[in-house]
Amino acid sequence: MFDWLDQLVTLLVENVFKVPVATRLGGSIHFFIYDSIKIIILLGLMIFAISYVRSFFPPERTKKILERFGGITGNIMASLLGIVTPFCSCSSVPIFIGFVEAGIPLGVTFSFLITSPIVNEAAFAILLASFGWKIALVYVITGVVVGVVGGIFIGSLKMENQVESYVYEMSSREVELEALTINDRIRFSIQNVKDIVGRVWIYLLIGIGIGALIHGWAPAELLAKYAGPENPLAVIVAVIFGIPLYSNALGTIPIAEALIMKGVGIGTAMAFMMATTALSLPEMILLKKVIKPKLIITFVSITGVAIILVGYLFNELAHWLI
């Protein structure tokens, strides 16, 4: 799809910068310029398309939809609605509070909370640009499955008493939903592209920059030995290291791409990315204000195990995905 861009950037690096692409420096420069342009193009297109869909699902309507579903169906709907939300893990927390105080089952709210930061249009666009449609599609499916399964497990534990009492005492205020025309939705989508790209471009360039350094300078043999698919503990270590960090998928995907190109297992890289986005330390600090430590530990444990299993699944399917 982007062969023309690859050739154009190669000409730029070799004829303008006077650095052969085959060298470490040339390869790093090519990686940075090529990935930056490619990702921004797809990011803008994908954000516009999903934002148009999202214009039909403001938070108030999302809450009303979830109120109509119970059981596993509610978990599935919550995870699917999490896909079309632009929230990172921290900004998902206020929505989570709104769901709880509206009486939506706890397990269903956690399905949303898990899926929302992991799977979104920006992550899908970058995955599509970096790895192709197979990995992008499997990532979305597994992200939804992690949300559904995690929510079901948490719901089955009946831990409603682990939510701070004041959350249940908050009253929901009915918000009148505004009817939008097609032009309104187009303007909303264009504004979303400007807003989201404006907020995340720095994280994106930092991630691509780190990826470029890994691409050009990281020792492939060492990474393949300790973080390759043959190391049975690599996925677990990746998740443990990912949890204390805070980033969104935009910053971590270019790093994952560079690691995979150096021989790191695809499941290991994906597990690191999922753990960083879904189980970040800032999110835990925010959640501490609305749920008790026992439920936080349960949430991290269940989600962490699910992400580890997804990592091993990706490693097993690597021959089909790449």
From TrEMBL:
<keyword id="KW-0812">Transmembrane</keyword>
<dbReference type="InterPro" id="IPR005524">
    <property type="entry name" value="DUF318"/>
</dbReference>
<dbReference type="Pfam" id="PF03773">
    <property type="entry name" value="ArsP_1"/>
</dbReference>
<feature type="transmembrane region" description="Helical">
    <location>
        <begin position="31"/>
        <end position="53"/>
    </location>
</feature>
<protein>
    <submittedName>
        <fullName>Permease</fullName>
    </submittedName>
</protein>
<feature type="transmembrane region" description="Helical">
    <location>
        <begin position="293"/>
        <end position="314"/>
    </location>
</feature>
<comment type="similarity">
    <text>Belongs to the UPF0718 family.</text>
</comment>
<keyword id="KW-1133">Transmembrane helix</keyword>
<feature type="transmembrane region" description="Helical">
    <location>
        <begin position="200"/>
        <end position="220"/>
    </location>
</feature>
<feature type="transmembrane region" description="Helical">
    <location>
        <begin position="136"/>
        <end position="157"/>
    </location>
</feature>
<feature type="transmembrane region" description="Helical">
    <location>
        <begin position="232"/>
        <end position="253"/>
    </location>
</feature>
<keyword id="KW-0472">Membrane</keyword>
<keyword id="KW-1003">Cell membrane</keyword>
<dbReference type="InterPro" id="IPR053166">
    <property type="entry name" value="UPF0718_permease"/>
</dbReference>
<feature type="transmembrane region" description="Helical">
    <location>
        <begin position="259"/>
        <end position="281"/>
    </location>
</feature>
